[in-house]
Design a protein that fits this description.
Layout: E1 4-8, H1 12-24, E2 28-32, H2 38-45, E3 49-52, H3 59-70, E4 79-83, E5 88-92, E6 103-106, H4 109-117, E7 130-132, E8 135-137, E9 140-142
Parallel strand pairs: 1-2, 1-3, 3-4
Antiparallel strand pairs: 4-5, 5-6, 6-7, 8-9
Length: 144
């Protein structure tokens, strides 16, 4: 099964290594470098996972992340947000997880994708992941 990932960012240069890594792992990768059309790209590409990887943390990327979380049309899609300053990945399982396992941190994009696609009942804590109830994305706090 070919897994399709939509990478949303504000910089093609910055996401190039992650995009190449995903392609090398046999995944179909779509890219969007304009936050304003991200929802249209998601509707058109119908990805299995949305990966938001901003070059710099900021209000625009965080607002787009929250708007995707709130959009009922994308309720079944796992969203991964790269926390630039910490080089870690926030996996949002808000819609599918129990209250204590809503957001999980992974230390690389491949593990983040695996976590995003794992059923909450089957996933177990791993030393490189930890649940969180509040993560700061730049200057704006993420809702857990």
């Amino acid at each position: 099964m070919l897994l399709n990932i939509l990478v949303i960012s504000d910089s093609a240069r910055y996401t190039e290594p992650d995009v190449q890594l995903l392609k090398d792992r046999g995944m179909g990768v779509y890219t969007c470098f304009n936050y304003g059309i991200a929802a249209d790209m998601i509707a058109e590409a119908k990805p299995d996972v949305i990966f938001i990887n901003p070059e710099t943390p900021g209000k625009e990327a965080t607002e787009m992340y929250h708007s995707l979380l709130d959009n009922v049309l994308f309720a079944g899609l796992p969203i991964i947000y790269a926390l630039v300053e910490d080089d870690v990945y926030l996996v949002d399982k808000k819609r599918t997880a129990t209250r204590d396992r809503r957001n999980i941190i992974a230390d690389n994009v491949i593990d983040a994708i695996k976590l995003a696609l794992t059923s909450p009942r089957k996933s177990k804590h791993h030393p490189s992941y930890f649940p969180t109830h509040k993560i700061h994305l730049g200057h704006v706090a993420a809702r857990a």
